[in-house]
Amino acid sequence: MERTRILIVGGGFAGVECARGLERGLRPEEAEISLVTPASYELYLPLLPQVAAGVLTPQSVAPPLRRLVHRTSIIPGMVIGIDPHNRMCVIRLISGETVNQRYDRLVLTPGSVTRSLDIPGLNEQARGMKTLAEAAYVRDHVIAQLDLAAASSNEQERKERLQFVVVGGGYAGTETVACLQRLTNSAAKRYPRLDPDLIRWHLLDIAPKLMPELGTKLGRRAQQILRERGTDVSLGVSVAKAEERRITLTDNRVLPSRTLIWTAGVAASPLIGTLDAETIKGRLVVNADFTVPGHPGVYALGDAAAVPDLTKVGGAVCPPTAQHASRQGKHMARNLVAALRGEPMSPYRHKDLGLVVDLGGMDAVARPLGYEFSGFPAQVIARGYHLMALPTFTAKARTVANWNLNALTGDDFLRTGFLSRRPATLQDMEATDAYLTQERARELTP
Description:
Layout: E1 4-9, H1 13-25, E2 31-37, H2 48-52, H3 58-61, H4 65-68, E3 73-83, E4 88-93, E5 98-102, E6 105-108, E7 112-114, H5 122-125, E8 126-127, H6 132-151, H7 155-161, E9 163-167, H8 171-187, E10 200-205, H9 216-228, E11 232-235, E12 239-242, E13 246-249, E14 254-256, E15 259-262, E16 266-268, E17 279-280, E18 283-285, E19 298-300, E20 305-306, H10 322-340, E21 354-358, E22 364-368, E23 373-374, H11 376-389, H12 393-409, H13 426-430, H14 438-444
Parallel strand pairs: 1-2, 1-6, 2-3, 6-19, 8-15, 9-10, 9-15, 10-11, 18-20
Antiparallel strand pairs: 3-4, 4-5, 7-16, 12-13, 13-14, 17-18, 21-22, 22-23
Helix pairs in contact: 1-10, 6-7
Organism: Streptomyces spirodelae
Pfam family, one: Pyr_redox_2
Domain FAD/NAD(P)-binding: 5-329
């Protein structure tokens, strides 16, 4: 009997948990499992700002796939086109070669990319915080601005290099500005020629509240903590124009700055747009059991899918969070095992456990199961949650060791020179221009 070919697209929370669940639920002779991902690790995205700030090493938040899956064949590349008629995917390997991969069951978990808007200069000047490479680049860039400002005698240049702008008042943006400001404040002590008061961080969001999902009280508390550290938090404001040495805001203010970090939301992977299927705000419409209407044998989950949230009313869909993605991956594995054995699949249902936001040091805000905490108790909850969610003992041990080492010794403010002479645009870092139309994918598949 020929084994069923299962192809999982994406090595994030949903894809890896699905592969692990399939390995547990299926015998080797039942299915051939393949996972397509350009990275050799599963990125624990919630701790990425701490990597940029030097609190954690990259290995702490990027457990290798070889530790997580054992029978799954890992294809190092990215799916750039899908031909559902012939059940074939076009894959661009990390070597640049293009190959075709046939499947019987296709599980789409390509995740999301940084959402970009039609703002003059944004694509050229903005840097993201979505990948390990982006975090490494942002860290190098921020430390480089301190080095260059300290070496310059031009007052205007110093002002431009020492003002940093982060756009996006959600989870990612708030933690990014909190962690990186602690980095620059600590680093300033090593630069006797720099006035620490010249280092300014700005957090912008077009929304009227900071992290509204936390509730009014905790959102205000997080905002208060940032402002007490010296961050200029501007709500109801965004970027109107981005240039190399200045950023114009929608309220007509002009900030002299050479650093724009863009975390203003996410969008589903562009791969979803290559399918002839219905979408909601760019996310693929799926049933509660992850099946894609009109596409037999195709399933979608995670950030790229609009999975119905059955714990709420009014047609709500699950938010694109790590919590939902990992649980959906496990549920998808159980459903696929059931489908292959002729058993009924079940709808996904999970009540959100809450949100934790680590602001660095002793500061955090958390809302687990509807209860509100701030300060040190919230920090204990936040870090406890992250340790619980990290998938391997090695990653947990590295993370604890890094937290303790950073608390005792601080940072060395090391620059690696990563992409120092090449602008790391969102398009380059997240490969958003790599995808094929369905017609082009069909041309490349036999």
